Amino acid sequence: MAADEIFLRVRDYDLAATLTSGQAFRWEARDGAWEGIVGRRWVRLEPRDDGIRARVAEATSDWRWLTHYLQSEVELAAVLATFPPDEPLRVAVAAHRGLRLLRQDPWECLASFILSSTKQIPQIRQVVGRLCKSYGEPVPVPPGQGPAFAFPLPERLAGTTEAELRRCKMGFRAPHLLATAHAVADGRMRLDRLASLPLELARAALLDLPGVGLKIANCVLLFAYGFPTAFPVDVWVARALGRLYFPRQHLSMARMRRFAETHFGPHGGYAQQYLFHYMRHSGRNGNAR
DNA sequence: TACCAGGAGAGCG
DNA sequence: CGCTCTCATGGT
User: Fold this and answer.
1) With a threshold of 0.85, does the pTM exceed it?
2) According to the model, what pLDDT value does residue A24 have?
3) Do A277 and A96 form a contact (C-beta atoms < 8 A)?
4) CA A192 → C1' B6, Å?
5) A12 confidence band (pLDDT: 50, 70, 90)
6) What would the pLDDT profile of A157-194 be if each residue is shown by its tens digit?
7) Alpha helices of chain A — where are they, by DSSP H?
8) How many Å from the CA of A76 to C1' of B1?
9) Nucleotide closest to A253 measured between CA and C1'
10) How many Å from the CA of A170 to C1' of B5?
11) Which strand C nucleotides have any atom less than 7 A from protein CB atoms?
């Protein structure tokens, strides 16, 4: 039976931490809930003690798209149990227990992270917002809501120009996004096929795209394809690894990556997300906002 | 003003 | 491999 709302019973799900931890860039807090777009659906998520209440604009009977996106059926305790028993990670997990990894659409994730390089999260949100408003298809919203837009399809962006994309304030990232949109729209890059490849091959395919280096490739592998050991190292994670694991030493990015690959185990990607979020919100050096 | 941001890519030793 | 520089732009 179709309904416009559902209750997802789930423990240990911190919506605020999950939706603001730099994985996805389109969620906005409103009246104690979170509003965003998943695929072509407007969604409102309301945190409850024993789960999440979700509401959509148009009634549906199939909610797998949402549980898949939220990964709400992942047993978090089993993931945390694989972490190495070191103090820094224990503290980071304790600070935001309930932080989860989402499972996002590969194209939206890839395009968003191409726009992320050397930008702060609030700015990434602004650029992505402008891109969706300019080129995304409008999606149905509940009465009284302002207009909302899906993430633009690669074909749509491939039909624009670098100058047009630059109006979204993406700067030097515009040609990278445009070229990648062409590669996906042409079929030269088949994002759907990466899911069945081994990690290294999927990563190599992503690294062929302009504007995609190791960090962004790992973000897409982790946040969209769910490769559990993909471990993005940005300035915050590098800071966390340096401060927490190698105090008063200097490690190159390459050495940090090598350490991370072997140290954090089969769910290193999850560990990375806890370290990232902890570092951005722990007073001493978490001046992020 | 100077510095920084969920970096990439090119040039160079 | 590993270092340095540039790219664009808004925030502090």
Assistant:
1) yes
2) 97
3) yes
4) 24
5) very high
6) 999 999 999 999 999 999 999 999 999 999 999 999 99
7) 15-20, 64-70, 76-80, 87-95, 106-114, 121-135, 154-158, 162-166, 174-186, 191-194, 199-207, 214-223, 235-245, 253-263, 268-281
8) 47
9) C2
10) 14
11) 1-3, 7-12
